[in-house]
């Protein structure tokens, strides 16, 4: 066995102790008995799984070595974090994975929105949507389950105001790991908008899992704004199950983090459902951002539209892997996938891989990937109108991102993105 | 205002301009005519700082400053404006956004305060009325999906907003039907003033029926071979450029 193989074997089996060693102190500080059984099943699953290596096809371009080789500490209490500007007043704030009531806005009566640690949370679907049988990070999230956010919208209820969930991280002397967990359940013909925000300072690891269920006719607009610190690791698994005639629209906006993996898995569980998955990832320096999406057309007559755009500068590395499964009975599927990448430097890298597996014969599936640079003719045109080269580059970069940005319905977030790109 | 002295320039190693001399004073309109490949668009590109052109000899002074030392955006700030032969499409940027960024960049260069959205809109609505342009043009992406006529009018609209001292119109009539050309020419004429000079580059005389020049220069093989008044354009229309190429035989002085 070669040295490289030995190394992989060691990493796959032994290295989980840096996390599993935390179980005992975690259990001592976080009783949350209601989730004990879930945690236990998560731990058993984690014990049976290996960390993914770059020899797994789904992880070919992303090594998790920097994460699994770091010794993280459990979160400490931290109440002095500054908050990002509010985009609305329905806001839950979590600091290092724990609900921070003082920083959160009171939730209006009649809304089932709150902390998973609350006894009253109606969370029957928790850990039922996110598959952990081959995902060690998801299993690990469940292993530490004690808090997180839940949003349950009753049948027929229409919530106009966006519900914002903020996960803040801050390490003290050692890098910490937190496992944010979010459950969003939208009832029959109910409607809601949910924003997840991830922010923090210093070096830490966020291992997030979000589970989303849309009942028949439900409508959900979901925004995830990843603004982690540039030293942070961020691994997220967002899984969505859609009932018949439901409409899911999402915006995965990735701006921060040193090493980032965003997994999005949509599964159609009923007919005539529609899913729109928009993504924007901006990376510079040595940031690594991996976008992994799976759209599972398990039912006929569903439509999915996926548009991901990446902007990579300096030595950044981007990955886009877009899988679309069309099952044997999923006739009349309409699936469209587009991935466009703008490379702003000669040293930036993108690996893009569309993957369509189609087992039905009456379907419409398209995919396309483009990789380009800023257009010299457009740059000169802007310069000839007085706009300095630097500003012209930023303006054209913004133009590239604009269609994804414009699909975000919350104006404050659009403005934030514009500021970030054009500044 | 503009003095071009013995200007030589190359494009991908090929000599295109071979000693241009031209003097433009405020308020004057100079037409530059010439056959294809004579160097008309190269001259426009050199004056505005297009990268592809390499100046090998000569100088260009704009209000006493060395224009060739400046970046394209500095030239715009100084007051040089090029109406492009092929206006560039910029999907994802609205005309409104683009124009405000442009006007504020130029104002900043000129030491003026930048305009907020409201003040900008007031100016733009005024100009749009003068040029009789549809207001929805502001909300559309820059030149994207515009007809040929709309693109050229949009160039003149930008010119109106930026208020340059020297306007260079590069084949602004190309690809336009008579009505569209007249609309563009009306826009240009509305911007003529005693302080503003114009260089109108065109292949055909017909544009000069509408934008009447003070001087007409004939460019051939990278040099100005003949200069005259507006009547020179008519002679060219009748006899073509061949007599000039053949040593100006057949053209009366």
Characterization of the model:
The complex is a heterodimer of chains A (423) and B (253). Chain A has helices at residues 3-13, 17-20, 23-29, 36-48, 65-68, 136-143, 376-384, 389-407, 411-422, and strands at 90-95, 98-99, 112-115, 149-153, 163-170, 176-178, 181-186, 191-201, 204-214, 219-227, 233-242, 247-254, 259-268, 274-283, 288-297, 303-312, 317-326, 334-343, 349-358, 364-372. In chain A, the strands form two sheets. Chain A has a ten-stranded mixed sheet with strand order 2-1-5-8-10-12-14-16-18-20, with helices on one face. Chain A has one domain. The radius of gyration of chain A is 21 Å and the shape is globular. In chain A, strand 1 and strand 2 form a beta hairpin. With 423 residues, chain A is an alpha/beta fold. Helix content of chain A is 21%, strand content 38%. Chain B is an alpha/beta fold and 253 residues long. Chain B is 36% helix and 28% strand. Chain B has helices at residues 40-48, 72-78, 95-109, 117-130, 148-162, 178-190, 206-210, 231-239, 242-245, and strands at 2-11, 14-24, 29-33, 53-62, 65-66, 80-83, 90-94, 141-142, 166-170, 197-202, 215-220, 223-228. Chain B has a six-stranded mixed sheet with strand order 6-9-10-3-11-12, sandwiched between helices. Chain B has a four-stranded antiparallel sheet with strand order 2-1-4-5. A two-stranded antiparallel sheet of chain B has the order 7-8. In chain B, a hairpin with a 2-residue loop joins strand 4 and strand 5 (65-66). In chain B, helix 2 crosses helix 3 and helix 5 packs parallel to helix 6. The radius of gyration of chain B is 18 Å and the shape is globular. At the A-B interface, helix 7 and helix 8 of A face helix 2, strand 7 and helix 3 of B.
């Amino acid at each position: 066995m070669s040295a490289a193989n030995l190394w992989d074997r060691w990493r796959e089996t032994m290295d989980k102790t840096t996390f599993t060693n935390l179980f005992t102190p975690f259990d001592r500080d976080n009783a949350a008995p209601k989730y004990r059984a879930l945690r236990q099943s998560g731990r058993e699953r984690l014990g049976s799984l290996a960390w993914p290596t770059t020899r797994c096809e789904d992880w070919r371009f992303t090594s998790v070595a920097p994460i699994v080789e770091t010794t993280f500490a459990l979160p400490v209490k931290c109440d002095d974090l500054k908050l990002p500007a509010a985009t609305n007043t329905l806001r839950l704030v979590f600091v290092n994975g724990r609900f921070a009531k003082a920083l959160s806005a009171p939730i209006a009566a009649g809304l089932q929105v709150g902390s998973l640690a609350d006894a009253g949370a109606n969370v029957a679907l928790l850990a039922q949507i996110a598959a952990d049988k081959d995902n060690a990070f998801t299993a690990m999230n469940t292993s530490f389950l004690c808090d997180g956010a839940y949003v349950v919208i009753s049948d027929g209820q229409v919530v106009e105001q966006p519900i914002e969930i903020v996960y803040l991280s801050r390490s003290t002397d050692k890098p910490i790991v937190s496992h944010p967990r979010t459950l969003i359940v939208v009832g029959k013909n109910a409607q809601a908008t949910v924003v997840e925000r991830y922010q923090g300072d210093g070096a830490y690891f966020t291992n997030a899992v979000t589970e989303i269920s849309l009942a028949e006719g439900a409508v959900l607009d979901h925004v995830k704004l990843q603004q982690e610190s540039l030293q942070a690791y961020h691994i997220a698994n967002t899984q969505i199950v859609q009932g018949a005639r439901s409409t899911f629209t999402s915006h995965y906006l990735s701006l921060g983090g040193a090493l980032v993996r965003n997994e999005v898995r949509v599964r159609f569980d009923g007919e005539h459902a529609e899913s729109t998955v928009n993504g924007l990832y901006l990376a510079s320096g040595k940031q690594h951002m991996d976008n992994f999406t799976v759209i599972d057309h398990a039912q006929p007559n569903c439509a999915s539209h996926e548009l991901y755009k990446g902007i990579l500068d300096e030595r950044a590395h981007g990955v886009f892997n877009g899988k679309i499964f069309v099952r044997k009975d999923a006739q009349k599927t309409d699936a469209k996938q587009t991935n466009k990448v703008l490379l702003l430097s000669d040293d930036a890298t993108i690996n893009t891989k569309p993957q369509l597996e189609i087992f039905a014969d009456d379907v419409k599936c398209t995919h396309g990937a483009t990789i380009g640079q800023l257009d010299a003719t457009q740059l000169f045109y802007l310069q000839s109108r007085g706009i300095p080269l630097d500003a012209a580059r930023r303006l054209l970069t913004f133009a590239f991102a604009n269609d994804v940005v414009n699909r975000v319905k919350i104006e404050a977030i659009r403005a934030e993105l514009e500021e970030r790109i054009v500044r | 205002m503009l003095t071009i002295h013995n200007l030589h320039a190359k494009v991908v190693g090929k000599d295109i301009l071979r000693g241009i001399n031209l003097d433009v004073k405020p308020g004057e309109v100079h037409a530059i005519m010439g056959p294809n490949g004579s160097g008309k668009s190269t001259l426009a590109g050199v004056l505005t700082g297009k990268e592809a052109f390499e100046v090998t000899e000569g100088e260009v002074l704009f209000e006493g400053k060395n224009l060739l030392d400046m970046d394209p955006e500095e030239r715009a700030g100084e007051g040089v404006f090029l109406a492009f032969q092929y206006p560039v499409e910029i999907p994802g940027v609205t005309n409104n956004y683009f124009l405000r960024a442009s006007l504020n960049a130029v104002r900043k260069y000129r030491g003026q305060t930048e305009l907020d959205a409201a003040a900008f809109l007031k100016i733009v609505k005024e100009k749009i009325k003068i040029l009789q342009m549809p207001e929805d043009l502001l909300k559309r992406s820059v030149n994207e999906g515009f007809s040929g006529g709309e693109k050229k009018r949009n160039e003149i609209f930008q010119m109106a907003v930026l208020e340059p001292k020297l306007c260079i119109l590069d084949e602004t009539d190309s690809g336009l039907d008579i009505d569209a050309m007249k609309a563009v020419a009306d826009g240009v004429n509305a911007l003529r003033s005693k302080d503003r000079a114009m260089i109108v580059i065109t292949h055909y005389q017909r544009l000069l029926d509408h934008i009447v020049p003070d001087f007409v220069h004939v460019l051939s093989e990278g040099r100005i071979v003949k200069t005259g008044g507006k009547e020179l354009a008519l002679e060219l229309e009748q006899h073509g450029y061949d007599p000039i190429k053949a040593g100006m035989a057949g053209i009366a002085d």
